[in-house]
Design goal:
By secondary structure, the protein is an alpha/beta fold. It has five helices and 13 strands. The strands form two sheets. The chain has a ten-stranded mixed beta sheet, with no helix packed on it. It has a three-stranded mixed beta sheet with strand order 1-3-2. Helix 5 links the parallel strand 10 and strand 11. The N terminus is likely disordered.
């Protein structure tokens, strides 16, 4: 400990202490969050800078997926940030949150700033982003027309189209993917999206129930 303290004194006397902080890799997050933590090392002798502790602290920030911290002699602390990428929007009871592909909440977002990002909802839905992406990949032609996905009991999905129509899928990854592919094929043949049907209920395959506003009963269709 005494030797370490002596080295620190010698380094400080020689000018090897943190005088500058350089941050790279940020494009969306507020850099001040990085500087606020990195500048806590300011004026410290270089040998005493706790690089790993600072890296761990930075990784606790929502936008930071990873961080690399290094020393550039004689007096600069370099922080290289790997940012998380916005992927979708999580609808919560009191606000909308931007999330990444792992479901990590990044920051609140106004409804008029959502743009073309998918809006997901339902308890625990942010932890189901990857399975949802796998599901949608089964019918890529439909993806541009889907604006929202609601997780129901973490068991199945209701998909909402930009037309305002809703597709209720069955439980299970394989069953829901099969149903989505079938719906895509039917839409390609009959242009269901944008039509009069408000809800397509595929929860009981192979039957499909289509509800039209103003009609008391749903129209039933058997699929193969």
């Amino acid at each position: 400990a005494m030797a370490k303290a002596q080295v620190a004194v010698l380094a400080s006397d020689a000018g090897f202490e943190v005088k500058h902080v350089r941050v790279t890799g940020t494009s969306r997050m507020d850099e001040q969050q990085i500087y606020a933590r990195a500048l806590a090392q300011k004026d410290r002798p270089m040998p005493t800078v706790e690089l790993e502790a600072l890296r761990k602290e930075l990784r606790e920030l929502p936008w930071v997926k990873d961080a690399r911290v290094s020393i550039q002699l004689p007096a600069t602390l370099v922080v290289d940030i790997v940012e998380r990428q916005p992927h979708a929007v999580l609808e919560k009871p009191n606000r909308m949150m931007l999330i990444d592909a792992e479901g990590v909440e990044l920051e609140p977002i106004a409804k008029d700033k959502i743009g073309e990002k998918m809006v997901i909802s339902g308890p625990g839905s942010n932890m189901q982003v990857a399975p949802l992406e796998t599901l949608l990949a089964a019918a890529p032609a439909l993806s541009p027309q889907i604006e929202a996905a609601e997780s129901v009991g973490n068991r199945r999905w209701n998909l909402s189209f930009k037309s305002g129509q809703v597709l209720a899928l069955p439980e299970g990854a394989e069953a829901s993917a099969t149903a989505l592919v079938k719906f895509a094929r039917m839409d390609g043949q009959n242009r269901l999206i944008g039509g009069q049907v408000a809800t397509f209920d595929m929860r009981s395959p192979p039957r499909i129930y289509m509800r039209v506003p103003g009609r008391a009963d749903a129209v039933e269709m058997s699929g193969t």
